[in-house]
């Protein structure tokens, strides 16, 4: 028996609960679904007896992505719906073809959170019929129908040794490149035609100064009892400065568990550098401070942060935190123009409508046509199988020292990434069942699918 929809995810905290919400609604409509991590071993069943009718990847940029995400996971398949998790970009990124899709990736169907994203990718060459505005599913969790879904402050306090009687400050980090090695930065530069070396440099400097400010803040009489929760970016791990801060301040916590929304809901004030999760902060009606030790150029700054009122000194940071009510730091109109919000018909319903239309009708377009030649990556197929086996057997990556320091470091990095991004079938099923309860209770009736 074949599979209806196969979802591909990269980062748990960014994507899992969003994917699970869409999958839960699809199951309610009678369809079969599965979730697969991009770094997990390739599964022959998805090429043959459980080949999906529709594949739903986390991203789709060019022929290389088409080859890696689609062909090397399921073979040829023209029904590709891109969840398109990177939509709020910098001015420089908006001008690069990579982020607005090139080659046969343009022939896939692309989900857009609002008209701004649709206008951008259509202007860059995506056929208008292939760009569909659905709203942003991550914002659905802030709707009244999900009251009670997130853990309470008491539950988080018990799990992470936090004090509910104290003020919670949550810093949402975007220092994704600060500790990347030169090889990783060069790969990003080549792939996107952008200066990630410069982004890494400004990120490293900003992170260093931000932590200095936090060190100073947590030594102030009014903040020695506050809980400062540092939520790292999914690509940010093995960071020595964070380990030092944890040692120095018992009320400084580095917690990567759960989504940004979970910590936004339970914290008193949210701080960030340039995280696009500022949308969740805004729609959750939370106090927010943008912390910027130095300015960000348009090359790196998300367009929604244009004209941001940032705390660019320790004194301004302290003043902002001491003030009970401060204006939201970015232009609300600009932010809302990037998100199509319909409180009567959430984004997960609109996305499921699109997926249901896709499975019932001929493809909108044909990515596996002229302009793209499929290429099976045997080396990656074998490597991912080996990494999965090593992870399952709990093999210490340091044992690979005999292959050379560089190779051993690469093995350790990939195994670390895989172990952080891995979900068991039981975890996936539990989350779908949990969300199904909220969906069934809301009982939103689907609209006519056009």
Report the CATH architecture of the largest domain.
3-Layer(aba) Sandwich
Q: How many extended strands?
A: 11
N-to-C span: 28 Å
Cα-atom Rg, whole angstroms?
22 Å
What is the 3D shape? globular
| Overall pLDDT metric | 90
Order of helices and strands: EHEEHEHHEHEHHEHHEHEHEHEHHHHHH
Count of structural domains? 2
Q: Please summarize the sheet with the most strands.
A: 5 strands, parallel
pLDDT < 50 runs, ≥5 residues = none
* CATH class designation of the largest domain: Alpha Beta
What is the strand arrangement across the widest sheet?
A: 9-8-7-10-11
> What is the helical fraction, as a range of percent?
40-55%
Supply the helix-strand structural class.
Answer: alpha/beta
Would you give an account of this structure?
This protein is α/β, with parallel strands linked by helices and 450 residues long. It has 2 domains: 3-136 and 341-379 and 422-442, Rossmann fold (3-Layer(aba) Sandwich), CATH 3.40.50; 148-334, 3-Layer(aba) Sandwich (Rossmann fold), CATH 3.40.50.2000. Helix content is 43%, strand content 10%. The protein has helices spanning 12-28, 63-74, 91-95, 97-100, 115-123, 137-140, 153-160, 182-192, 196-217, 240-248, 260-266, 278-283, 314-322, 332-336, 347-360, 378-392, 405-421, 425-442, and strands spanning 3-9, 33-37, 52-56, 81-82, 109-112, 131-133, 168-172, 227-231, 252-254, 269-272, 287-290. A 5-stranded parallel beta sheet has the order 9-8-7-10-11, with helices on both faces. Helix 5 (115-123) links the parallel strand 5 (109-112) and strand 6. The longest helix has 22 residues, at 196-217. The model has no long low-confidence stretch (mean pLDDT 90).
């Amino acid at each position: 028996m074949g599979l209806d929809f196969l979802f591909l995810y990269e980062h748990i905290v960014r994507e899992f609960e969003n994917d699970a919400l869409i999958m839960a609604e699809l199951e309610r409509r009678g369809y079969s679904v599965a979730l697969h991590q991009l770094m997990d071993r390739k599964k022959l069943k998805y090429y043959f007896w459980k080949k999906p009718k529709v594949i739903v990847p986390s991203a789709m940029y060019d022929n290389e992505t088409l080859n890696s995400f689609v062909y090397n996971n399921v073979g040829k398949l023209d029904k590709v719906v891109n969840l398109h998790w990177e939509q709020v970009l910098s001015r420089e990124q908006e001008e690069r073809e990579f982020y607005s899709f090139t080659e046969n990736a343009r022939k896939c169907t692309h989900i857009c959170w609002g008209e701004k994203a649709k206008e951008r990718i259509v202007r860059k060459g995506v056929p208008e019929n292939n760009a569909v505005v659905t709203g942003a599913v991550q914002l659905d969790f802030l709707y009244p129908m999900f009251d009670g879904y997130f853990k309470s402050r008491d539950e988080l306090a018990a799990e992470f040794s936090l004090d509910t009687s104290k003020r919670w400050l949550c810093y949402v980090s975007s220092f994704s490149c600060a500790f990347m090695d030169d090889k990783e930065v060069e790969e990003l530069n080549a792939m996107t035609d952008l200066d990630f070396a410069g982004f890494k440099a400004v990120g490293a400097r900003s992170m260093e100064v931000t932590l200095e400010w936090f060190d100073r803040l947590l030594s102030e009489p009014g903040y020695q009892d506050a809980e400062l929760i540092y939520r790292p970016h999914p690509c940010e791990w093995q960071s020595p400065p964070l380990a030092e801060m944890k040692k120095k301040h018992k009320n400084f916590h580095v917690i990567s568990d759960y989504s940004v929304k979970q910590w936004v809901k339970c914290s008193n004030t949210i701080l960030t550098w340039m995280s696009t999760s500022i949308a969740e902060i805004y729609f959750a009606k939370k106090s927010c401070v943008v912390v910027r030790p130095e300015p960000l150029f348009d090359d790196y700054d998300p367009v929604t942060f244009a004209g941001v009122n940032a705390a660019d000194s320790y004194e301004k940071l302290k003043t902002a935190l001491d003030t009970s009510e401060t204006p939201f730091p970015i232009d609300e109109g600009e932010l809302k123009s990037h998100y199509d919000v319909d409180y009567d018909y959430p984004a997960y319903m609109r996305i499921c409508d699109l997926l249901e239309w896709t499975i019932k009708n001929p493809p909108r377009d044909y990515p596996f046509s002229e302009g793209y030649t499929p290429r099976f990556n045997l080396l990656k197929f074998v490597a991912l199988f080996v990494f999965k086996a090593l992870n399952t057997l709990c093999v210490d990556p340091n044992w690979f020292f005999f292959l050379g320091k560089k190779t051993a470091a690469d093995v350790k990095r990939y195994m670390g990434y895989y172990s952080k991004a891995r979900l068991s079938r039981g975890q996936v099923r539990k989350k779908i069942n949990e969300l199904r309860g909220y969906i069934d209770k809301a009982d939103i009736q689907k609209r006519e699918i056009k």
